[in-house]
Write a structure and sequence with these properties.
The chain is of the alpha+beta class. It folds into three domains: 94 residues, no CATH class; 57 residues, no CATH class; 68 residues, no CATH class. 33% of the residues lie in helices and 22% in strands. The chain has five helices and 13 strands. α5 links the parallel β12 and β13. The structure holds zinc ion (ZN).
């Protein structure tokens, strides 16, 4: 696989050895020296680990985590953990897993990356302490403000954010109240806008209905004038299609159909004829 020099990467060290072996002792030493904690699991997808071979993988840094990584598409779209082993329930003495050596670029990306505990938004080297997206959230409560503190991803996995309450910057509460006020005003303005549009649409819709009713009335009057009054109880107008239909209640006889078609094709110069159906 090819990687750019600036591309954050991981070097995977895959292993399969016996639990008490010198090889495993050395692996544990190296993984711990890298600061990793072992994740030893019953695999959700058995054999997933077979896809992870020793080698270098490019890491997608769009979203970073404290102890796991997404490889790029070119590197197989894998989820790699710092140090990972799959439990084999039939063999308690062997250890199958891998540990990851992070490139300096990936370490630097992790140093830079901070995350909001409320919405999960990530920021690189933020100069502000709090997530700006969340301050105006209508669901945010004043006693949840510490969730918005931007914490380095390294500290974020499993972090107890309630311990961060003391790190809330001065003036945070005032900024929160200001932002909540702005957001509430913006929501109210949007609501007014929607309601106003709806109010105007009431009249527009009524105008359309009147236009349709006038058209239907004109057709009825033209039919009466043309001597077709006895067919009107068997006529319907479908406003959504803009079409009239004779025979919707009771099917027309061939003779009635001929009479209607002939008369309507003459009526008002045949204006209505294309919009009339016969059943
Ligand atoms: Zn946020």
């Amino acid at each position: 696989m090819t990687t750019k020099t600036s591309q954050p990467t991981i070097r995977v060290h895959r292993y399969a050895c016996q639990v008490g072996s010198p090889e495993y002792t050395e692996i544990k030493r190296q993984a711990k020296a890298a600061g990793h904690k072992l994740m030893r699991v019953y695999p959700r997808q058995p054999g997933y680990i077979r896809k992870v071979r020793s080698g270098t993988y490019a890491i997608d840094t769009k979203h970073l985590f404290g102890d796991q990584y997404n490889t790029t598409e070119d590197s197989g779209n894998l989820r790699l953990h710092d140090w990972y082993e799959e439990i084999n329930p039939h063999d308690d003495d062997s250890r199958v897993g891998y540990w990851c050596e992070l490139s300096p670029e990936l370490e630097a990306a992790k140093d830079a990356r901070h995350v909001c505990g409320y919405c999960g938004a990530q920021y690189d080297n933020p100069t502000h302490h709090m997530c700006r997206r969340c301050l105006g959230s209508p669901y945010l409560k004043a006693d949840e403000l510490h969730m918005l503190l931007l914490v380095p991803v390294r500290e974020s996995s499993g972090a107890d954010r309630s311990a961060l309450v003391g790190r809330l910057p001065d003036g945070m509460r005032a900024a929160f109240e200001r932002e909540q006020e702005h957001a509430a005003e913006a929501r109210k303005a949007a609501e007014i806008q929607r309601a106003t549009e709806h109010a105007h649409s009431l009249v527009e819709n009524a105008r359309d209905a009147v236009t349709q009713a006038e058209y239907e009335r004109d057709f009825h009057l033209a039919c009466i004038k043309a001597g077709l009054v006895r067919f009107l109880s068997n006529l319907i107008y479908y406003t959504h299609k803009g079409r009239f239909c004779f025979g919707w209640r009771e099917s027309l006889t061939d003779e009635d159909r001929d009479t209607l078609q002939a008369t309507i094709s003459e009526m008002q110069g045949g204006d209505f004829a294309p919009f009339v159906d016969y059943k």
